């Protein structure tokens, strides 16, 4: 009752979300439960601080970047249930039959790219790469080694010579890596 009634989805909205994300009704129900339990203030939307309560994100070294990517499509710094499900759907594993859904390789790459692109200018700079490398590797690697990894990565990926990695260059670099495996997070279990 109360505020939460405004959150209840209409039957056609369920259908649209299922179509769009490939989640089953059961999965969407569970995510809905998750959403409402994260929505402590019953506003029907989540802010960044709500996301950091998701344990999988809290312990992920890239958690902060993932949260940033979640909100990259949000204009007011909050996301509603539908946006929440759309973003989570990018972490689903891809089945052969659903390459066009939101969890397609392209969407996952886009999402990963946004994690690195801290200032949202659609290019990854050396500084941005270094900042993310810092988060990923912790303290065991020296500043110099990190800088040389960043330099080498830029050199290998940058085909047009602007010292920045565009989305196209990013995709070409990751062509051989198993991004689907790396970007599949078990939110649902
Ligand atoms: Ca950038
Ligand atoms: Ca470039």
Automatic annotation (TrEMBL):
It holds the Pfam family EF-hand_7. InterPro entries: Calcineurin_B_homologous, EF-hand-dom_pair, EF_Hand_1_Ca_BS, EF_hand_dom. It is found in: Cell membrane; Cytoplasm; Nucleus. Transmembrane segments: none annotated. Residues 104-139, 145-180 form the EF-hand domain. Keywords: Calcium, Cell membrane, Cytoplasm, Lipoprotein, Membrane, Metal-binding, Myristate, Nucleus, Phosphoprotein, Protein transport, Repeat, Transport. PANTHER family: EG:114D9.1 PROTEIN-RELATED. Belongs to the calcineurin regulatory subunit family. CHP subfamily. This is Calcineurin B homologous protein 1-like. It comes from Limulus polyphemus.
């Amino acid at each position: 009752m109360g505020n939460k009634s405004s959150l209840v989805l209409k039957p056609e909205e369920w259908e649209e979300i299922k179509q769009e994300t490939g989640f089953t009704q059961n999965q969407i129900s569970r995510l809905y439960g998750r959403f409402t339990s994260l929505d402590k203030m019953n506003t029907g939307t989540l802010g960044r601080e709500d996301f950091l309560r998701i344990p999988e994100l809290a312990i992920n070294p890239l958690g902060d970047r993932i949260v940033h990517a979640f909100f990259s499509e949000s204009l007011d710094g909050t996301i509603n249930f539908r946006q929440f499900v759309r973003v989570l759907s990018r972490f689903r594993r891809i089945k052969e039959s659903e390459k066009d859904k939101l969890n397609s390789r392209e969407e996952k790459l886009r999402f990963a790219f946004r994690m690195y692109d801290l200032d949202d200018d659609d290019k990854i700079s050396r500084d941005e790469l270094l900042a993310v490398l810092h988060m990923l590797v912790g303290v065991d690697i020296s500043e110099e080694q990190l800088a040389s990894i960043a330099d080498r990565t830029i050199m290998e990926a940058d085909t047009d010579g602007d010292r920045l990695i565009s989305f196209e260059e990013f995709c070409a670099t990751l062509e051989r890596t198993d991004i689907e495996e790396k970007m599949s997070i078990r939110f649902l279990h």
